[in-house]
Structure formats: C-alpha cells, structure tokens
Amino acid sequence: MREDADAIDALTLEALAAAGDWLAFFSAIRDGGERLARDVGLLSAAFRIAGTADREDAVLGFRDIRVAILRNATVEPWLPHAFAALVRRGLIPRFWLGDYAVYEGYLMGTQPGWPEAEPDVTFLYLDPEELVGDGAFLVDAALPGAIAERLSSLLSLAADSGRPTVVSNLTPPAHGFRTVLDSQLRSSWPNVRQELNLLIVEKAETHPSLVVLDLDGPASRIGASNARDTGLYLGSHVPFGRDFMPVIADAFAAVVAPIFLPPRKCVVVDADNTLWGGVLGEDGPEGVKVGLEYPGSLYRRFQLFLKALIDQGTLVALNSKNNESDVVDFLGSSPDMVLREKDFAARRINWGDKASNIRGLAADLNIGLDAMVFVDDSAVECELVRTLLPEVLVQEFPTAPLGIPDFIERFPDVGVLRVTAEDRARAESIRSNVQREKLRTEAGDLDSFIRSLEIQLHIRCQPTDLVQRIAQLTQRTNQFNLTTRRYTDDDIRSLMAATLVVTLAMADKFSDYGTIGLALVRMEGSEAEIDTLLLSCRAFGREIELVFVDEILKVLVARGVGMVLADYLPTGKNAMVADFWEKCGFERVSGADGPVRFRRELRDLTPAGIASRYVINSEGCE
Amino acid sequence: MSQDIDARLRGSFEQVLGPRVTAEVLAKPSVGHPDWDSVAHISLVMAVEQAFGVTFSPEEAGLTTSYEALRDTLTRKLGG
Q1: What is the interface pTM, i.e. ipTM, of the complex?
Q2: Nearest chain A Cα distance for residue B69, angstroms
Q3: Helical residues (DSSP H) of A31-100, grouped into ranges
Q4: What is the mean pLDDT of each run of 10 residues along chain A (622 residues)?
Q5: A51 shares contact with chain B (CB less than 8 Å)
Q6: What's B16's DSSP letter?
Q7: DSSP state of A291
Q8: In chain B, whose CA is at the least distance from the CA of A242?
C-alpha cells in the first residue's frame, strides 16, 4: 500500500456521508493507504458511519455483500479492519454476527435469529482455545478424535448450507509445549492443532463451497504471542492481538474477494531489477544477478512466484526498455532463469514509453486495462502508468532485494480459489494466436481463413460437471456478454435444475480452448427467455457466435418453443454486442437507450449459411 | 497538557462513538452511556491506546467505563 497523499479524517468521512456522496466516501476508504489501514480510531469511525447510514443504492465500482459470522470469540473489534480491507478490494460488507459459540443451530436452521436477507458468504471463525478447552493443558488420547469429529461435522454442515463459507484454520497457542514429553505425543494440543488444520484443508478440497482462511501461517510469522494478546483474550475474549487484526483483515479480504470479483488476468513485468538484479544492457549477461546465491536468489524467487501464477492460468507479459535481442538471448541462454521466452504470453521490449506498451499488450492479449497489474522497480515508470492508465493496478517493485519476499506476500488481486483445466491451458492458447495470425495473413479472406482453422464445436446441455467453469465464465466475461449477470457455483447448481444450460466448447488445429461459450435459457411452455449469452474473448474472430445461437434455437424448437425473448443490457464494456440480437434475426421490441428487449419467432428456422465452416456435435441436448 | 489530553481524548471518543454520543457522554462525564457498551468499550480503549501510545491492563480497561475514569487513568499513565 502507498502512503496516502491526502490524509482523510473522521470529519471528512462524516461530511461525505451527510452529503450522501457514497462514491467519495468509499473511494476515500479504498485509497486511504497504510495510515487508514492501521489507525484504529479512523477505522472505527469509517465502520460506524457506513453501518449507520441509510444507503439503499449501490455505489459505482463497488459491490455490496452480506457476511454472516459464526464465532466463539469477541470478534467485534476486528470488524472495522475487515470492513476497510474488503472496501480496498471493491466490496462493501454488511456484517451479521451469530450468538456466541452457536454454530450447528444456525447451519441447520434450528437457531432463531438468522438474517432474513440471506448472506452472500459465511465466515466460520473457530477460536482454537475455545475449541479445545481443558484439552490445551491435559493430554488426552481421546482428544484428537473427539475434536476432529465435531470439526468434520461442522464443516459438512457448512458445506451443505449452499453458500460460500470461509473457514479459519487454527492459530498456534501463545505458549507451546509444556514439557519435552508433551512434544513427543501426537495427542498433545500443539500437534493435534496441526492435524486439525490438515483436516480443514482436506474438507475444502472436496467441498468447493468451503474456503480456507489461513491464520496459522500469518500467526506463525508475526509470532504467536503477538497474534494473541493474553490480556485482551482473557479479559474480553478478543481473539486477535492489536497488530494481528489488520493482518487477518487483509487475509480475510484476499480469500473473500475471489468469490465475488474476477481476479486480474495479466501481470506485466519489467525486466531489469525486477526479473533480475542489475541492468542487462550495462552489466551484460554475466553481470546481472539471478540464481541460487544472494541477491540473485531473491529475483529467482520472484520468477518462481510468476511461474506459479502462470500455472494457475494468470498471464505474464514482459514490458522492458531494452534491446529485444539482448533479452531474448538471455531468456534462452541463462542457466539460472526460471522464466523462458515461452512463458510470456506477450512482450513489448523497446525504447518506447511503458504506458503505450501496456496499451499494446492489452490489445495483443485482447483484455482490458483493468485486468492488468504492472510491476516495475522504477518509481517514475510506476507514476507514469498510474497517471496515464488509472485502470491498471500498479505495484512498485522493491529496490532492495530483501524486500522481495514481502512484496510477493502482499501481491494483490490475482488470487484464485480454484483452478480449472481451462485456466492452465489459457496461456498456451494465447501463444498459439501468434501462429493463427500468420495463417490469417496467408489465408486472405475471412471464410477461407476460418475454414483453414478446422474448428470443431461441441455443444452440451445441462453439463453438471462444468459448474465451476460456467460460474467462472459468468464472472469473468465482460465484452461478449449480453446481460452480464454474475453467478456463483451454487447459483449454477440451482439453475441446472430449472433452466436450459448450454455450453460451447471449441478446438481448432492449434489449440483446444475448452468451454468458451454459455447460454442460460428459461423456458415456459412455448416461450423462452435467454437470461445469459456470453462468449470468451478466445472465441472472437471466427463468427462462431452466430452458429452457437443457431444451435440453441434448434434445441428450443425441438422442445416445443415457438418464441424467444432476449435482452441486451449495456455496460461500459459490452458495446460490441449492442446489435448482436439483430444479427441473429431478432426484432427489437422495446428500449432505445439503456436495456433493450428483442424477440424472435421460431417458425421456419433456417440454419446460418456459415455452419458448414465448422464441425459441430452436441451432447445431452436431445 | 490536561487540555491537550481532553482534546485528543474527545477525538478518540468521536471516532469510535460518534459526535452525538460523545457530546452526551461529556455532558455527564462520571457515568456511562447506553451506546457505550462492552464491545464499543474495547474498540474505544484500543483507539485511545494507539492515539496516546499507552497500553491498558485488563483491570484498567474494566474500570475506565466513564469519561472521567478513562481520562484520570490516562493522565496517570502519561505521568501527569
């Protein structure tokens, strides 16, 4: 976080709230910097003002979420920290707290008082000392089994609740093993705690709605006796130490944000003093620092971090002021580099300004600037990009190598909670685009070009094994998205039972793209309404969208539908599809500016002439 | 110094409890306030600790449930 240039105070926040200027209010909190994140009084003021406000409308650029917290400790003093951490990520939380130490009752619906407005996410805070009780002191062979059984049952109830549940793992005790004998025993509490943490992870791996909040790691790093203040805990049952509260708040926001917001898709990195220590053009390949020895080991660690991001489906692009041939040669020849030329989805290595290069990279990769993070060690370059490209998230890389591990730990906005096979294949398919572009030039006209790709389309109806991918598509697709409705995994499971769900997968002679299109269609008798139609940007330029709609209409006709309604809901990003329904033969029935409704009768359905360009097969649509 | 402590302490009260409740608290500084409950008290004590660079023990935190009591304990801790 940067130090805020214009410090905010409680009076300013009160004034903004009184004036109803909620955009300025929440923007001030979001941009409040390190000072706001650590100022207990100011955080309390911000939280109090937001909580007592009579605000009904959404705030542009933010999303409201309802968070239910089940707890066995006094977490209230932590809430202002959690509030600010979530606002920094574009989420505005309203918290509801369950009664002290009541879990099963709420999860099973037998405890009264559950909020009428269903929460969007539940946070299950399990205080380890409350959980273990006297077992923290008395070694009991039956202890591990007893607690594990209760914990397992609780997690199963949470998983069955049908909403995302964040579960904290168990922090280390402020005081460890009492005796050397205890340290030898599996059933002593410090060892039992570690087994329970593994149980939590195992449960989350098999139950996609459970998300683990790691408190154990941060508590170990800050020190267990700092993570828990004995006076605060024993006096007031406040489970977190003063210095630990902002740490947990950040960790909590980091796992909650991916549930509701798409992560940034691409990290754009500088090369000199970022991927390696030193300047390649001046120090030469033998003089730059990257490898197993300090300080090169720290730059190598950053490359390993980027490699891990690539493995989870995030793109990494290179933006460097260098001679391109020098960098390409070094990427190929250095034995110590982790990243190679093939790992970068795109690159701009030249002497032009970095903002223009980033615009170029966004065009090359067909993604928005707001999907990008820029990393550079130069304060000047960072400020240039912040000024000219405010949508890009800028992270200034530390000039001192020892700052790199902290930089990695605090790296924002690219966290994902689940990785699908399509995610991992994405970078490879984008690199294949280079070859495709070559073909385009050689093929001449569009029809010949598309035929030369040998595209295969696979249509599936009610694909219950694709719930995660479907939800991900609704959350991440912005441009070719007619209604931009966002759905979670659980939403999609519910929709599968009551709605026609049609997916489109695509492969060509270069790549298998996986599932890249989706339609959700509500049917009632002889009428249908298309709730969602979207196409991943990977599918652009092949006109398959017209064929996809044709196939959907064929399914509807086979099911007795004679008339279809569809909407175009304009956003700042989907102007490209404003006339799409008309291209598909729909008639506009209402709306001029703003939301537009279309309609099509399904008599005399004739297939689009272009269908012969593709090999089309379907599954489950009969 | 005493005036400075009062001004800064009032600032912490206003941040945590809000201007209206703070004014009511200051009107009757020797008693508590319905909106100044045990949970708000924890946040208030933590805000005062940070603002003044002091730490209250659980016993001190438990006894400082009026403005006067909090100010007197704070003044003692600051060496006043």
Answers
A1: 0.91
A2: 18
A3: 33-38, 40-52, 79-88
A4: 58 92 92 84 95 85 94 95 94 95 88 88 92 77 84 91 92 80 84 93 91 94 90 90 93 92 90 95 91 96 95 92 91 94 92 91 90 92 88 92 93 69 60 56 62 87 94 88 93 93 88 89 95 84 84 93 94 83 90 85 71 86 86
A5: no
A6: H
A7: S
A8: B46
